[in-house]
Structures are given as structure tokens and as C-alpha cells.
Design a protein that fits this description.
Elements: H1 12-52, H2 57-63, H3 69-101, H4 103-120, H5 127-140, H6 143-154, H7 160-189, H8 191-212, H9 223-232, H10 239-271, H11 277-306, H12 308-323, H13 332-360, H14 366-395, H15 399-408, H16 411-418, H17 424-437
Helix pairs in contact: 1-6, 1-7, 1-8, 2-3, 3-4, 3-5, 3-14, 4-5, 4-6, 4-8, 6-7, 6-14, 7-8, 7-11, 7-13, 10-11, 10-13, 10-14, 10-15, 11-12, 11-13, 12-13, 12-15, 12-16, 12-17
């Protein structure tokens, strides 16, 4: 007995199987989009909570008994940098664990432990206790690398760049909004109450991840993949392929934080007026973060057209070109405009660097790879303020803008990112020519 077939040569059973498969694919895609949307909201709340406490940390140190303003600033610098130092050490370990247990579980661990640690900061009675809690925060938390690894491992290949860029956009928006909300909260409700509010935001973020983000399954390498890894000796990560992305994340965060520490003093020197300095510096930093969020969105989209390495080289070169003139500006408005331009191009580079790291690492090791990336970022956060402070104190405020800007134009870094001997200028010229011709050249 023959099975009836349609004009396309398919039997009714085959058509039914195909329809079922298509429906399952659509349902899976819809679930993935909803899960990603919930993840974005959770990271908006989490990053806002972390940045919530930044503006009033020096004031809190003074309330804890360090009355001298200079000593309070020193304590605040050590306390703020403490979490980055410990995160740089332990992030690869958490990343390796996420490869075994799943990225969602690691994101939950980072978010919920942060809620407990940040809430506990409201109970301290001395700066040493606050320092210990910040060290503990860096050791146990790390929501951004956990969320980045989760997005990179679950996004469809054709949407990975866009989703990583969107995630970074949300993080930058939160980084701009968080300090402003924290300052308002500290003035209105008090500093200790503000720690409770930040903890509550983190708890809500954890609940969103728990109930709204789809569970990912750890990737298990096939026999063929394991054999290939053994032949290549790849029990470890391909660090040579990861290096461009790691260097980019480190350089970007050094450039951002080294200028931030010198900004209030430089604004004072340019304006000649001591009133409103903190407000002006805060607005420059906050609006810079918002502009960087737009850059992240565009960078993730353009990477697929221009090539990831070339996109990074062009972004860093343009950021450097915008940073160098900041050392010779005549006033605050010009400094503000150039800082926004620098922030835009630095924002472009971050999601593309994450995309490079995703593509360079095998699926079953992406958690480990993003843990190493988190270490590079944390090192940038830790060393940037130290370097910027040293440059400003020894060579003047202008040096904290001039030297990092020149470093972004370094031909060696550009050669490593572009994969050839060309400096950043050549990478920019080739990309610009490709765009004008309507056929962007792929990376070599």
C-alpha cells in the first residue's frame, strides 16, 4: 500500500512533522526573546543597585569615623577598588564553574549574594568592616560577566552581536542613572537606608532571573570535539585568540576610569569656580555613560558588516583622537563635548570585544572565557584610577586625558587587533573606503 504524496513529493506524515518542527522553532524563538527581555530588565536593576552606592561612599566613610576629608577620600578609593581586585582573581574560577553547572545558576549566585552583601553594608560601624564587605562583594558577585556569558551562549549566531550590544547598552544606562538616584536617595532617606534600597533592587533582579530567564544547559563536548581538543592540546583556553578582546576590555576601562578621577579637579581648573564642581563632573560622567550606551548598540550591529577586529581598531582610534584634544580645551563645554565623543566610541568597542571572546572560545568553555574577560575588566577598573591619579598629581590634570588617549592610538595595539602590521590609521582608511564603496572589507 502506497502512501499518498502531494505535488511537492511530501507525504502527509512528513508535512505534519515539518509543521510541528516549524512551530517548535517559532515557540523556542519567542521564549528566547522573552527570556532576553527579562534578563535586560534584571541587569538594569542590578547595575543600578551597584552604582547606587558610589556617590555617597566618601560621606559614609566620614560617618564611620574618618573625619578628615583627604583621609576619607583615600579610604573611599581603596574601598571602591577592593571589589575589582578580588573579582579579577576569582572571576575565572566562577566562569569555569558556570561551564559545568550552567550560566543562569551563576547569575543567580552573583545577584542574590550581592543583595545580602550590599544590604549588610548598612550595619557596619567602621571603615575596615566596609572594606571587608567590598572584598567579599568582589569575590562572590559579578553579575555583568555572568549575564554576558549567558547571552553569548544562548543567543542565535546571527543575533549574538546585537544582543551583546543591547545588554551593554542597558548596563551603560544603569551606570549613568544609578549614581544620580543614589545621591537623591542618600539626601532624602539617608545613607544606611540607601544600602537597603540597593539590596532590594538586587533581590528583585534575582527574582526576575529565577522566574523569567530560561534555564541554559551546559554544553557537553562531543567525542569529535574532545579528540580535536586533545590533538590541539586544548585543555586550556585559546588565549592567543582571546587576547584582542581582553586587551580591548582592559584598555577601554582604563581610559574611562583614569579620566574620571581627574575630572573634578580639571573642571575646577577650567572654570575657576569652586561651586558646583561635583555637579558638573557628575553630569559629564553620567551623560557620557548614556552616550556610551548608544555606542554599544551601534557597535554590536556594525561589527557584522565591518568585521569585529576592524570595528574595534576604528573605535579605539577615534576615541583616542577625541581624547587627546581634551588636554588643551579652553573651557568646560568643549571638554564635555569631547568626553561625550570619546564615550561614544569606547562604548562601540565593548560589545564587539565580547563578541570576539565568544567566537574565539569553544562553547563548552565560554563561561571560563568570560570569567577571564571579567578579570581584564576588573584590572582596568583597579589600575585606571591609580594611573589617572598618579598622572594628574605628577604631570597635571591634562596628562590624565592626553596619555590614555595617545595609548588608544598605539600602532602595536592596532596591529594586534587588525591582525596585521597596519596601524590604526590604515585600518580606519580601509574601513572608510569600504563603507563609501558600499562593500565593507572583511577582516583578514
Amino acid at each position: 500500500m502506497q502512501t499518498s504524496r502531494s505535488g511537492t513529493g511530501e507525504s502527509p506524515q512528513e508535512r505534519e512533522v515539518g509543521a510541528t518542527s516549524s512551530a517548535a522553532t517559532r515557540e523556542q524563538g519567542e521564549t528566547g526573546r522573552q527570556s532576553f527581555s527579562v534578563l535586560l530588565v534584571s541587569q538594569l536593576l542590578a547595575t543600578t543597585a551597584f552604582m547606587f552606592v558610589v556617590p555617597f561612599m566618601p560621606l559614609y566613610v566620614q560617618q564611620l569615623g574618618v573625619e578628615d576629608a583627604g583621609s576619607a577620600a583615600a579610604w573611599s578609593g581603596v574601598i571602591n577598588g577592593a571589589s575589582g581586585a578580588t573579582m579579577a582573581l576569582v572571576a575565572p574560577l566562577w566562569g569555569r564553574l558556570s561551564d559545568r553547572t550552567g550560566r543562569k545558576l551563576m547569575l543567580l549566585r552573583a545577584t542574590l549574594t550581592a543583595a545580602v552583601v550590599v544590604g549588610s553594608m548598612a550595619f557596619v560601624s567602621g571603615p575596615w568592616q566596609l572594606l571587608v564587605l567590598r572584598l567579599l562583594q568582589g569575590t562572590l558577585t559579578g553579575t555583568v560577566p555572568a549575564a554576558t556569558a549567558l547571552v553569548a551562549s544562548t543567543a542565535p549566531p546571527d543575533k549574538a552581536g546585537w544582543r551583546l550590544g543591547t545588554l551593554q547598552t542597558v548596563i551603560f544606562v544603569a551606570a549613568g542613572v544609578g549614581p544620580a538616584l543614589g545621591g537623591i536617595s542618600a539626601d532624602a532617606a539617608g545613607i544606611r537606608t540607601s544600602f537597603f534600597l540597593a539590596s532590594a533592587l538586587l533581590a528583585v533582579s534575582g527574582a526576575l532571573v529565577l522566574f523569567g530567564v530560561a534555564q541554559d544547559r551546559p554544553h557537553r563536548a562531543s567525542d569529535a570535539e574532545r579528540e580535536g581538543q586533545e590533538e590541539a592540546g586544548s585543555g586550556s583556553l585559546p588565549y592567543r585568540r582571546l587576547l584582542p578582546g581582553l586587551l580591548t576590555l582592559f584598555a577601554v576601562h582604563v581610559a574611562i576610569t583614569s579620566a574620571a578621577v581627574a575630572l573634578p579637579g580639571y573642571v575646577h581648573a577650567l572654570s575657576g569656580d569652586a561651586s558646583g564642581i561635583a555637579t558638573q563632573a557628575g553630569w559629564i560622567i553620567g551623560t557620557g555613560a548614556l552616550v556610551a550606551s548608544l555606542g554599544s548598540l551601534f557597535g554590536g550591529k556594525l561589527a557584522g558588516k565591518l568585521g569585529a577586529r576592524r570595528m574595534i581598531a576604528v573605535s579605539l582610534a577615534l576615541a583616542g583622537l577625541a581624547a587627546i584634544p581634551q588636554a588643551i580645551v579652553p573651557g568646560v563645554p568643549e571638554l564635555w563635548a569631547l568626553r561625550l565623543t570619546t564615550s561614544l566610541f569606547l562604548g562601540c568597542a565593548i560589545p564587539v570585544a565580547n563578541l570576539l571572546i565568544k567566537d574565539a572560545s569553544p562553547p563548552e568553555r565560554q563561561g571560563t572565557a568570560f570569567g577571564v574577560a571579567s578579570s581584564a575588566t576588573a584590572m582596568g577598573f583597579a589600575l585606571g584610577p591609580m594611573g589617572g591619579g598618579l598622572l594628574a598629581s605628577s604631570l597635571g590634570f591634562q596628562a590624565a586625558f592626553l596619555i590614555p588617549g595617545a595609548a588608544l592610538l598605539g600602532p602595536r595595539n592596532s596591529s594586534r587587533l587588525c591582525g596585521g602590521p597596519a596601524p590604526a590609521a590604515r585600518g580606519f582608511r580601509q574601513t572608510a573606503a569600504g563603507v563609501l564603496e558600499g562593500h565593507p572589507r572583511p577582516p583578514r
